Amino acid sequence: MQIIEFTKNETAVAHLAQQIxxxxxxxxxxxxxASLLVSGGKSPIALFNQLSQLPLEWQKVSISLxxxxxxxxxxxxxxxxxxxxxxxxxxxxxxTFIPLVGHEANAEAGLAGAITRVEPLATGADVLVLGMGExxxxxxxxxxxxxxxAALDLDNKQxxxxxxxxTAPYQRISLTxxxxxxAKSIYLPLVGTAKIAVFEQARQIEDYQKMPIGAVIAQxxxxxxxxxxxx
Length: 231
Hints:
Layout lengths: L1 E5 L2 H23 L2 E5 L6 H7 L9 E5 L1 E3 L9 H8 L9 E2 L9 H16 L4 E3 L18 H5 L7 E4 L8 E4 L1 H5 L3 E7 L1 H12 L8 H7 L3 E6 L3
Parallel strand pairs: 1-10, 2-3, 2-6, 3-5, 6-9, 9-10
Antiparallel strand pairs: 4-8, 7-8
Helix pairs in contact: 1-2, 7-8
């Protein structure tokens, strides 16, 4: 694990955008294509805006999500809408986007289709950008979710799982831990003392179901953590 500290979020975002672009460029050079999985929420917007303007062979990049709420893609809380609005624009508009959410009525009905669409891209993704909540959740693997054990089970080889958190709205679809750990590079940006304190707590925890991000911290050798402690 590599930890880099910043005092300004703008500097952290610029550094992360450049690192992701470098990783994607290397993958394109080596394999002729690259894959990028991103998280939703408000935090990544600045990153998406910067990344979308960087020169890259975006037509060779496939993008999908770490998780999404099972909502129509034009819903204001859809991670897909966030990506289409802030990342798949400017230079990055040439990238291929593969959605998690389909047209089925619910996530259970749409799970098989999502796996078929996303699994070829997600398995061994070149770059994966994670988020972390103050409860220690990552992707849509929530401590409160009845599916947390199955999502974290290393014997569960399924790439995606449906989760129903009790502390957050909407039914969700999420990568499992196995699929997250398969990524070649993982970036975890953390802004503020509260998030950093949660991260430090998760580094010490043994029961990952209580703080699922702890499983990634402990088990991914190429985890890059970007901490921003405002001065």
